[in-house]
Amino acid sequence: MSGDDLRDLYQEVILEHARKPRNYRVIATPEARHGQGFNRLCGDRLNLYLDVVDGEVRDASFQGSGCAISTASASMMTQAVKGRTVAEVEALFRRFHALVTGQAGNGDADVDLGKLAVFGGVRDFPARVKCASLAWHTLHAALASPSNEVVSTEE
After folding, report:
1. What is this structure's pTM?
2. Which of 123, 122, 27, 105 is nearest to 68 (CA)?
């Protein structure tokens, strides 16, 4: 598959998740963790909900408004974290962040991320990195301290 074909495929995956986001809902359990994210650069807003039981993310969902990359990233992230331990989710966060910021040393990060590797191309567009990483920073904050503070991509 050529580079152009791969880029087209990646774009299709992102657009599919943007049009039909997965896990776009509120988790209504009283113990669910909640995080809020805001991208001051473009106005993307996100509410993230996590059901964490015995150190495992049992369910994840989100609601909000944002661009296609932000929505697709949140959709794919909520799918990727379900059933993982908090430690596994934190490791996934670090790999994703390294991928989108261009800090990944080699192609191994892409393989480890599976479908999330579609976001690798945003590293060439610094403003879009914030769109792709908003949900992930919100996730990281909600796991660390579910204090309901708004997370910004500027921090």
Report:
1. 0.88
2. 122
| pLDDT tens digits along 41-55 | 889 999 999 999 999
Question: In 38-47, which positions are buried (b, 16+ CB within 10 angstroms) versus exposed (e)?
Answer: bbeeeebebe
Closest CA to 117 of 76, 62, 153, 78: 76
DSSP state of 29: -
CATH of 3-152, one of 3.30.70.100, 3.90.1010.10, 3.40.30.10, 3.30.420.10: 3.90.1010.10
- What is the residue extent of each domain of the chain? 3-152
C-alpha 11: how far from its chain's center?
16
CB 118 within 8 A of CB 13: yes
